[in-house]
Write a structure and sequence with these properties.
The chain is α+β, with helices and mostly antiparallel strands. It has 25 helices and 23 strands. It folds into 4 domains: 42 residues; 200 residues, no CATH class; 322 residues, no CATH class; 129 residues, no CATH class. The strands form 4 sheets. Strands 1, 2, 3, 4, 5, 6, 8, 9, 10, 11, 12 and 13 form a 12-stranded antiparallel sheet that branches. A hairpin with a 4-residue loop joins strand 1 and strand 2. Helix 8 packs across helix 12, helix 19 packs parallel to helix 23 and helix 23 packs antiparallel against helix 24. It starts with a helix and ends with a helix.
């Protein structure tokens, strides 16, 4: 027994020593494995990776391609450097995104770093959502609470001859479905029921290296149960472009955003603040323009920038269109002179292969205007900016070939009544060129940092748009950045009218505010006082107002003039003339009905836009952005008088049957059916706008802040009386009105199911209106009306009963 106890004590005494020795042995073994791995990596010679069979592309990194493998040779000096990774769709299947996604659309933008870690290189994403100076104690907390995600980890394959660069294999990064850089985000995957990437049909198309960027083109094929097109294939193939751009060593000084002037912006949370909470900071996006002679610039002289903004035209651009595209860019030169810069922006044809064999429009050093052979009717002006400062680094404006057809159609429909040259399918090159010039100018505006300013068209009085002298000088809106494409207000007989938009005074004002360099200022916050004064000096002039809210009737897309009712009345007068002459201007000339069908469909859309401008007054709220130092309210509901006028206009121009839109001489030439639904579709749209929870809630809110407000109950009562006016007049109800009346009741039914309004007056008003309507329908059904009207009234009563008493 004693011997057993002795051995037990000896065992316990030596146990920690043995365990420690075992751990030490395991540690040594792991260390030996790591050492062996490093030695193994060192054993892979540079010439094993890069040899006679390797194609090498020099640039930011050397890119080596060998046997379908892609190797990045990353200089050690670039490890840890911040770069911007922009994921774009280069080519896409028809219908992807429901028509709202185009070739060139950005999917993601993120700051990345290639970071060394032991015998690996990590690809990490850096965020600028939260910032702090690294000299402050709080910087440690910001970093600890914003851990940078690792996208991918690469083994170091080898080093170059002089050990100044490491080599990693990026083939799997760009040929597999890496979610962080995918071109098919989760909402697409869900919509189209994407299963997985098919590796056998996916590959790296190309990787090209330039001095400041690397461009990767990937072809990905996904298995999908509901692809947007070619559904029988159960396949989505998409071509993705990954642009990796070296960010500037010294970020540009930012300019603080002010929502009273329209600029695209970026935002972050600044923990440098000494306030009781972190500050949210926003900075505008703009190009870095610095004067070559700062002293002359500060004296008020026009000075050229050190680096002007240059757009290179796509060599694929049709020769006859090139001068108009160039003019669309060069038109901004005068605007930049307002900010003190001459020759700040220009368009050029790219150098030939003989002039510069290395030139490529994929190179981030060169911005371009691409001419894309596509049936898409659009143009876009995207740009890439530094998330640290807002500096725009490059821009590639895209023009799609068929876009001019849209402009030709709109030109004919919106100006044809007052503008004889527009009454043709063969618009002259000069007129088409002028339209294209202005579209390019608009897209350049976006690329300069300017968003849409839909309030600019409201700055001009409606009747001034019928003046030749006014429109020739001022155009039809105060900025090219509004959607005010054509002058549809001018009437037949008005002389010397400008029908096509142009740059305006707001463009000069906004560029000056965003781009003028302020002397002797080195920090963004120090220039805010001066920038604020520039705004307040112009604050009382509507020409310099920025606005773009959907609920603001003065900031609606495609509208012109400061009186929507008057502008739309003029517009519809013109449209009636066009509708009457549409066959003469189209099918009679071409001897087919394709253009007639297309233009008739677009004519309905134009009419719908004019109607929408007036409908926006109902429950509308004007927004006038101001600082507390300025006098006046920010939010002002539309006046009661304007809303009543607008509803009366809608009753006449929308809810009464618009027989001029239903010309049988057009309808029976372009379709075999659907005639009874044409008008109903548009009438339902405007019923939904008026009887929308947001519209009705804004009407109710007006009771709180507006003494003489347009009451919800008054609007809904007037709407009911207009839509069911046949009841009072004992008239038969025509086909289109019967459809409309049922739509009205069904819309009220939908509203009653909306839980968001259950604690408001809206259900009470609806029940009251339906009860009144039921009583009126009962009485009307006993009057002298035709059989279908009686049946219709009785059916409406059943619909109402089901709403009032669902049981």
């Amino acid at each position: 027994m004693k011997n057993l106890l002795f051995y037990a004590i000896i065992f316990v005494f030596f146990l920690p020593i043995e365990t420690s020795a075992q751990r030490k042995k395991e540690k040594n073994k792991k260390g030996e494995e790591t050492a062996n791995t490093i030695e193994k990596n060192k054993a892979i010679l540079y010439t094993d990776v890069v040899n006679e069979g390797t194609k090498t592309d020099e640039g930011l990194f050397k890119v080596h391609e060998n046997k379908e493998k892609f190797i990045y040779e990353i200089p050690k000096s670039y490890l840890g450097k911040e770069m911007l990774l922009v994921t774009r769709i280069k080519e896409l299947p028809a219908g992807l995104g429901g028509g709202y996604v185009n070739a060139g659309s950005k999917i993601n933008t993120q700051v990345i770093v290639w970071e060394p870690y032991k015998n690996k290189v990590l690809l990490k994403v850096k965020s600028y959502n939260a910032i702090a100076n690294d000299s402050l104690p709080i910087y440690k907390s910001v970093k600890a609470n914003n851990l940078e995600p690792i996208i991918y980890a690469f083994d170091i394959k080898s080093q170059n001859i002089d050990s100044t660069a490491v080599l990693i294999d990026v083939t799997k990064l760009f040929s597999t479905d890496v979610k962080a850089i995918t071109g098919l985000p989760s909402y697409f995957r869900k919509t189209y029921k994407v299963k997985k990437l098919d590796a056998s049909r996916s590959f790296i198309n190309s990787i090209k290296s330039y001095p400041k960027n690397i461009e990767v083109v990937q072809d990905f094929t996904f298995e999908s149960d509901m692809p947007p097109s070619n559904k029988s294939t159960n396949t989505i193939t998409i071509r993705i472009n990954q642009s990796m751009i070296l960010l500037p060593e010294n970020p540009m000084m930012s300019r603080v955003y002010d929502k009273r002037v329209g600029y695209f912006s970026l935002e972050n949370v600044d923990y440098n603040s000494e306030a009781l909470k972190a500050d949210s900071k926003r900075y505008i996006k703009r190009w870095r323009l610095e004067p070559t002679d700062e002293d002359a610039y500060n004296r008020g002289e026009l000075v050229e920038p050190k680096k002007p903004i240059i757009y290179y035209l796509d060599p694929a651009t049709p020769i006859k269109l090139r001068k108009y595209i160039k003019q669309g860019v060069d038109d901004w030169q005068k605007v930049f002179e307002t900010a003190g810069f001459k020759n700040a922006i220009m368009a050029k044809m790219p150098p030939t292969k003989e002039e510069d064999p290395e030139f490529s429009m994929e190179d981030v050093r060169y911005s371009s205007i691409r001419y894309v052979a596509s049936t898409t009717r659009n143009a876009v002006g995207p740009s890439v900016s530094d998330p640290r400062s807002g500096e725009i680094l490059e821009s590639d404006i895209i023009w799609y070939h068929n876009h001019l057809r849209s402009y030709r159609n709109r030109y004919l429909l919106e100006t044809g009544a007052a503008n004889p040259p527009a009454r043709t399918l063969n618009t002259t090159d000069e007129e088409i060129g002028d339209m294209m010039r202005m579209v390019i100018a608009h897209e350049v505006g976006h690329a300069l940092g300017l968003p849409h300013n839909m309030a600019a068209s409201f700055a001009y009085p409606t009747d001034s748009l019928r003046s030749g002298s006014f429109t020739q000088k001022n155009g039809i809106a105060a900025t090219i950045m509004d959607y005010a494409r054509y002058n549809y207000v001018a009437q037949p007989g008005d002389k010397n009218i400008r029908f096509i938009r142009q740059l305006g005074p707001y463009d000069h004002y906004a560029i000056n505010w965003g781009y003028r360099k302020i002397a002797n200022i080195n920090k963004p916050d120090d220039e805010v006082k001066i920038l604020n004064k520039w705004i307040e000096d112009k604050a009382d002039n509507p020409v310099y107002r920025f606005g773009g809210q959907r609920y603001d009737p003065s900031a609606q897309t495609e509208g012109i003039g400061n009186d929507q009712v008057k502008s739309s009345t003029y517009g519809i007068k013109n449209l009636k003339i066009v509708a009457k002459n549409l066959p003469k201007w189209t099918s009679d000339k071409t001897n087919n009905y394709e253009d007639l069908s297309e233009l008739y469909g677009e004519l309905l859309s134009v009419w719908g836009r004019y109607v929408g401008h007036v409908a926006g007054n109902i429950g509308g709220v004007y927004e006038f952005n101001k600082k507390p130092s300025q006098i006046g309210e920010i939010y002002i509901p539309t006046s009661k008088e304007k809303q009543k006028e607008s509803l009366n206009w809608l009753q006449t121009n929308v809810f009464q049957t618009q027989n001029w839109l239903l010309d049988k001489h057009i309808l029976n030439k372009i379709d075999e059916a659907g005639y009874s639904e044409i008008l109903t579709k548009y009438q339902n749209r405007f019923l939904r706008i008026l009887l929308n929870t947001k519209t009705l809630k804004r009407l109710i809110d007006a009771e709180v802040i507006q003494e003489n407000h347009y009451a919800t109950i008054d609007m809904m009562g007037a709407l009911r009386r207009g839509i069911f006016s046949e009841i009072r007049n004992i008239k038969n109800v025509d086909l289109h009105r019967r459809n409309l009346q049922k739509s009205f009741i069904n819309r009220l039914s939908s509203l009653m199911k909306d839980v968001s309004i259950h604690n408001t007056d809206i259900p009470s008003i609806i029940r009251g209106e339906l009860t009144t309507l039921k009583y009126q329908l009962n009485a009307a059904s006993k009057k002298t009306v035709n059989k279908i009207t009686k049946y219709h009234y009785k059916d409406c009563i059943v619909l109402i009963n089901n709403i009032l008493d669902p049981k």
